């Protein structure tokens, strides 16, 4: 699937991942992990390929496998956070900036409510907030958030570079 993606063939990649969902369900899933991770990949490919409606469906479809799974409650909460993260990015791409920001606020509350254990997810919140601010046209706010995101993640660094570029700082 990812070979197709790297070749610029997102539809073929999605077809392979959709087939993998069925194969995965028929196998003995690793550590009883539900198929949400496959659906999130499908969603991300759709989102980056300009199909936000399909991305939203895939994020929602994937999360449906989480509540009844054998995951720990902590892991289920992490997947719920990932759902809000994906939904926020997708809504932003749809131009629904207020709805997208509500997803960021939900994620921030989840992190705050997580206390000490939630602190590890603060960079993920700043990545989402920066992404949403950049999509909404506020490059300065995007930069402030993205500087607090994961500096070791190339996707997040690329987004920070795009924010600087939008702010007029091409260097």
Helical region count?
Answer: 10
Average pLDDT score: 95
Indicate the structural class. Answer: mainly alpha
Low-confidence stretches: none
Percent in helix: over 70%
Element order, helices and strands? Answer: HHHHHHHHHH
Percent of residues in beta strands? Answer: under 5%
Shape: globular
Radius of gyration: 17 Å
Sketch the major β-sheet: none
Distance between the termini: 35 Å
> How many runs of DSSP E, i.e. beta strands?
0
Characterization of the model:
It is globular, with a radius of gyration of 17 Å. The longest helix has 21 residues, at 73-93. The protein has 10 helices and no strands. With 171 residues, the chain is mainly alpha-helical. 73% of the residues lie in helices and 0% in strands. α2 (10-26) runs antiparallel to α3 (36-48) and α5 packs parallel to α8. The N and C termini lie far apart (35 Å). The chain has helices at residues 2-6, 10-26, 36-48, 52-63, 73-93, 97-113, 115-118, 122-135, 139-146, 154-166.
